[in-house]
Structure formats: C-alpha cells, structure tokens
C-alpha cells in the first residue's frame, strides 16, 4: 500500500538525514511513499527495493505512470521524464526507515521504544513487559508475532504504525525484532531505549546461511545506531559475548537473579530483588522470559510494586505454553516451539511437571531449514515417551518428505515406535486418545496460529481448537 504522510514534505527535507545524490529535487513535494509500484499514488516517492523474486527498479515506468513524483534507487535509471526527481543511494533498504521516520515526524523519538530479539521467548517477554508497563500507568502498544503478518513490519509500514501510536496517545511500544528485520534494516531510524536479548539457537538458516550470520543479524540491535541500553541474557554464551564486546551500555540478567523458584503447568513463582513475583504462565523458560521483562522494566525505572502487579496480571499469551483446560486429568499444552532448543525446553518442562508420560505431537515447516528436522526428531524421541510426527505448515514441500527428514534423526527402534500421521488433526486426536490420567500431551510448532499452509493455500486450523474437540470427544466416549 501507499503510506501517506501527515503533511506533504519537500524531497530535500525528506532526504536530509541520508547520504544521497538528488537529481531534479528542488521544488518537489512528497505526499507519501511505497515500495510497491502497484500501490503508487500521485505525489509519492517510489522506493525501488530488491526482493527475493523481483527488483523494484524494473517497475520504474509503472510507478511514474501511476503518478510517482520521485524515485529512490540504488542502481542508475535512465530515460526518466523531466519533472521526476531521482534519489540515488547505496542501498535502498538501508535508508527506507530513516526516510519514513522523517516523513512521519520521527514518531519513535516521542515514544519509549523497547526492542526484543532472540530465537525463543520474544512474544512472551513482550507480553510480560507490556503488562508491567500498563500496571505502571503507561499506554502500551505491542508489535510482534501475535499482532501482524510479520513479526516486524516492513520499514515504511512500521513508521506509519508508530505515527498512529503517537496520535493514539500511546507512550510505550514493545516490539519483537526479527533477524530478518535487522538484516534488512526495517528498524533503521529507530532508537530503542532498551534492547533485549533473550537467547540464540538454531533457526532461519534457510535465510541467513550460517549460525554466525544469524547471530550477527541479532547483534545489530545492540549497536549505538539502534540501542541506548542492552538487557542481555548472560546465561547464553552469545549473550555474554554481546556484553563482553558490545559498545553500548549493557545490563545483564540470568537464572541466578531468581530465588525460591516454583514451576507449575500454569504459573511460575520466584523472588527477584527480595520481592516475590508470580507469573500466570507455566514452563521454566517463562522464568527467563520474566527475568528479561522485569530487568528491562527496572532499566525503565518502573517501581518494583508495579513490576509485581504487572507480572501477576498477565493475560494469557496464545500458543505460549498454553494449557488446554479439561477435567480428564490430562495435561494438554500448546506451544509455538519450532526449533530444536525450543522443543527441548518445552519437553523438559513437561517432564518436570508430571510423574506420568510425556506425549509430543510436532512437525517441521516446509520451505525452511532442513537441518533442524532430524535434530528435532532425535530430541522428541529422547525426551518424550510417545512421539506423534505430523505436518506443521508444509507450504510447498511434500509433507511425507518432511516427515522422512525428521525420522532420519532416529535409530531404527525409535522410528518403529513413532506414530506418523500427516493429518495434523488426526495426530493430535490420536495423542490425546493415547494419554492416560496424569500424562501431559505437548502439541508443538504452530502455537497461536489459526491457519495451516499447504501448497500455498491457507486453511483454518487451530491446535487449541482441535485439542479441545479431541478432549470433548474423549470425555463423551468415557461417559
């Protein structure tokens, strides 16, 4: 879409904070900007972004025909009609956020911004911190996995959202910042008051190529250009590295900050700075997420009383160790765990919470990192008593091929014991049917998602809804 500025702005002013060569820019006024030539409106700046499939420079003529007043390019363009301005930069993506921030009146400079990055725990940490800030009397907007199509919006859209937050009276924005977003510069132009590092594990290697590149992208959030203070998990070796070699002020946190820890299926209780905190969310990973959130809140000068109140009043976070209530004495947990480390954590927590069996239902997403599939298979077989392998979001891959890659991480006896059902609904139902009183069924991978993608088609699907129906059916049979 085309994003319209609050008021028209001269092109020279719009580009004042970037290194650029401007051609025919004098007297040109810009009313909005977009990176999609199909959405150009008269008076827009058309930004020629290179994507995975298309190069925006190919559609310059379409943008001009639609009324673009100026072009933002990083490759020379020719035969541009007179009266059309050209802004030449080294990298269009790198400057989009800076330009959009200028066009929308630098909204992030008015807001208190908190950015959270890491492989696991971003969504829960953001939810806990938002609850704490609200308990302290602030108006908070959360941006992340649960609020939009992308964990972190594209740069122009993000600045438009922040402008809307300002006009709506929001004081604090807590947002998840993905590695893709950092690598693509989507948060450029924002100065985060606090940047939070939760942890790092294997993920998104289909995009970044190596774990080193993945971590390097995450580390960008802890540079002076983006961050004022870093709140960093030093129990993670990469977090300790950020503290050791980083060039921003850092405030570390770790498991040692918590005392008298109690873990339950639907709560975590611990003492922090001599004050008892209770978070109504289960799982030992919730402890680390809560420590990240309370440490960030402390950096933001939130009172310890408000921190305790905010932790205790946390609303359920969909798909994050979400308990599916039932009266069959069977624990059913839906969790977004979709990495080897995430799956290990959720199964480890389930094991600690029951003397019965742990059953797990999981798959791996298609068109993503193939290398993690056998790793997750091995973890499931080692840590659960019964394993049900199924589809996640196969996307454009053959679901059976994905399953085969998962099973390749198991030895023959383990493979023979695994239950395989490509139909995720049937696999969930089978696991719940197989559970005995006192057991815990972990349904991992999709968490909060309400659709399943197969061959490019999104169909309604909710792990929670399927599990609820399976429990009701089982109860009906039992009665």
Please explain how this structure is put together.
The chain is α/β, with parallel strands linked by helices. The chain folds into 3 domains: 3-91, MurE/MurF, N-terminal domain (Udp-n-acetylmuramoylalanyl-d-glutamate--2,6- Diaminopimelate Ligase, Chain: A, domain 1); 107-312, Mur-like, catalytic domain (UDP-N-acetylmuramoyl-L-alanine:D-glutamate ligase, 3-Layer(aba) Sandwich), CATH 3.40.1190; 322-478, Alpha-Beta Complex (Protein-Tyrosine Phosphatase, Chain A), CATH 3.90.190.20. The chain is 35% helix and 23% strand. The protein has 17 helices and 23 strands. The mean pLDDT is 94.
Give the secondary structure arrangement, pairings included.
Elements lengths: L2 E8 H4 L6 E3 L5 E6 L9 E4 L12 H6 L4 E4 L11 E4 L3 H12 L8 E6 L4 H14 L4 E4 L11 H13 L4 E5 L2 H5 L8 E6 L7 H4 L2 H9 L7 E7 L3 H9 L3 E5 L4 E6 L4 E5 L2 E5 L4 H16 L4 H9 L9 E2 L7 E5 L4 H13 L5 E5 L9 H12 L2 E4 L9 H9 L4 H6 L1 E2 L3 H11 L5 E5 L6 E4 L2 E4 L2 H16 L1
Helix pairs in contact: 3-5, 4-10, 4-11, 12-13, 13-14, 16-17
């Amino acid at each position: 879409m085309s994003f319209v500025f609050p008021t028209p702005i001269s092109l020279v002013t719009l580009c004042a904070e970037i290194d650029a060569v401007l051609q025919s820019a004098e007297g040109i006024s810009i009313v909005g900007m977009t990176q999609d030539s199909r959405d150009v409106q008269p008076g827009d700046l058309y930004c020629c972004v290179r994507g995975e499939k298309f190069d925006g420079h190919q559609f310059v003529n379409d943008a001009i025909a639609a009324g673009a007043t100026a072009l933002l390019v990083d490759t020379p363009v020719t035969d541009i009609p007179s009266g059309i301005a050209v802004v030449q930069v080294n990298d269009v993506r790198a400057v989009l956020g800076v330009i959009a921030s200028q066009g929308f009146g630098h909204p992030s400079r008015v807001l208190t911004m908190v950015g959270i990055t890491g492989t696991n725990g971003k969504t829960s940490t953001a939810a806990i911190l938002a609850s704490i800030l609200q308990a302290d009397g602030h108006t908070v907007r959360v941006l992340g996995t649960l609020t939009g199509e992308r964990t972190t919006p594209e740069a122009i859209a993000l600045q438009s959202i922040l402008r809307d937050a300002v006009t709506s009276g929001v004081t604090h924005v807590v947002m998840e910042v993905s590695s893709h977003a950092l690598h693509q510069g989507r948060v450029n132009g924002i100065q985060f008051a606090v940047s939070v590092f939760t942890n790092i594990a294997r993920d998104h290697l289909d995009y970044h190529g190596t774990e080193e590149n993945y971590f390097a992208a995450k580390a960008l959030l802890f540079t002076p250009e983006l961050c004022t203070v870093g709140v960093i998990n030093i129990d993670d070796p990469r977090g300790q590295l950020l503290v050791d070699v980083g060039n921003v002020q850092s405030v570390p946190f770790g498991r040692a900050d918590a005392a008298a820890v109690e873990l339950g299926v639907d709560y975590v209780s611990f003492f922090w700075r001599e004050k008892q905190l209770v978070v109504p969310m289960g799982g030992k990973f919730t402890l680390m997420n809560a420590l990240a959130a309370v440490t960030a809140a402390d950096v933001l000068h939130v009172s310890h009383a408000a921190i305790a109140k905010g932790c205790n009043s946390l609303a359920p976070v969909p798909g994050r160790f979400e308990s599916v209530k039932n009266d069959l004495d069977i624990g059913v947990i839906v969790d977004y765990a979709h990495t080897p480390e995430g799956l290990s954590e959720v199964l480890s927590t389930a094991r600690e919470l029951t003397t019965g069996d742990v059953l797990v239902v999981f798959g791996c997403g298609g068109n993503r990192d193939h290398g993690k599939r056998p790793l997750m298979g091995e973890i499931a077989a080692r840590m659960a008593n019964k394993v049900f392998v199924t589809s996640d979001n196969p996307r454009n891959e053959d679901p059976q091929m994905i399953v085969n890659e998962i099973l390749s991480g198991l030895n023959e006896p383990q493979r023979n014991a695994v239950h395989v059902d490509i139909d995720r609904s049937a696999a969930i139902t089978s696991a719940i049917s197989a559970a005995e009183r006192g057991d815990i069924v972990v349904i991992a991978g999709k968490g909060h998602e309400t659709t399943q993608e197969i061959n490019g088609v999104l169909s309604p699907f909710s792990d929670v809804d399927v599990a609820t129906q399976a429990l009701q059916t089982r109860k009906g049979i039992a009665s």
